[in-house]
Amino acid sequence: MTAAMRFPYAGFLARLEQAGSDIPRDALGTLPPLLESLLSVPPESRAELMASLALLLTARKATLQAAFDTTLAADELRRYQKFAKPGKPSAHIVQLRQKQAAARQATSIARQSLIKAAATFVRVAGIDVPERTPLDIFIIDWIDTHVPAESA
User: Fold this and answer.
1) What is the largest CA-CA distance in the chain?
2) N or C end of the chain: which has fewer CB within 10 A?
3) From CA 125, how far away is CA 5, in angstroms rounded?
4) 36 contacts: CB under 8 Å, gap ≥ 6
5) Quick count: other Cβ atoms within 10 Å of Cβ 66?
6) How confident is the model at residue 74 (pLDDT cuts 50, 70, 90)?
7) DSSP structure string for 43-92
8) Cα–Cα distances in Å, from 129 out to 88, 95, 126?
9) What pLDDT, on the 0 to 100 scale, is given for residue 20?
10) What is the pLDDT of residue 1?
11) Which of 65, 66, 95 minimizes the C-alpha distance to 80?
12) What is the mean pLDDT of residues 101-108?
């Protein structure tokens, strides 16, 4: 897929990846109160927390990109399939279906990695996940609420 989607947390993720555990919290810029309190731990714990947060944001980025790619493949297939003749599909349609299947598989893998990264982050940060709430839904809402996003 040649198109790229915009990741709203790219700037924060870049600062987080550049920052080591030995730098002050101020290097990350202005943070929401909950994220500020999470990072106000000793440097040993902060390193693990920052690494798990970076991994979580990377997994979220992969999830968004995979969803974008799946939508793009489905749109392309829909556009060409509309004018396809009945009967055996053309080689191009078959390639587009394979592309869509690969994009769907990438979406599933990205979602699994997001859940794994979310479980690690929740454990390290000591965040309580509400009962009967799927972890991926909770962590996406948590990221949207507490991680500083770039303006559009």
Assistant:
1) 66
2) C
3) 29
4) 25
5) 23
6) very high
7) HHHHHHHHHHHHHHHHHHHHHHHHHHHHHHHHHHHHHHHTTPPSSSPPHH
8) 50, 42, 9
9) 60
10) 44
11) 95
12) 96
Domain residue ranges in the chain? 10-146
pLDDT above 90 covers a percentage of the chain that reads: 51
* Neighbouring C-alpha atoms within 13 Å toward the C-beta of 13: 17
For the CA atoms of 6, 20, 26, 53, what is the dihedral angle to 10 degrees? 50
As a residue count, the chain comes to: 152
Q: Show the tokens assigned to 124.
A: 């390290």
In Å, how far from its chain's centre is CA 72?
A: 17
CB atoms within 10 A of CB 97: 14
What pTM was estimated for this model as a whole? 0.81
The answer to whether residues 128 and 105 touch, using CB atoms and an 8 Å cutoff, is no
Are the beta carbons of 82 and 75 closer than 8 angstroms? Answer: no
Q: Which long-range contacts (CB under 8 A, 24 or more apart) does 29-32 make?
A: 29/148, 30/148, 31/148, 32/145, 32/146, 32/147, 32/148
Residue type, 26: D
pLDDT surpassing 50 at residue 96 = yes
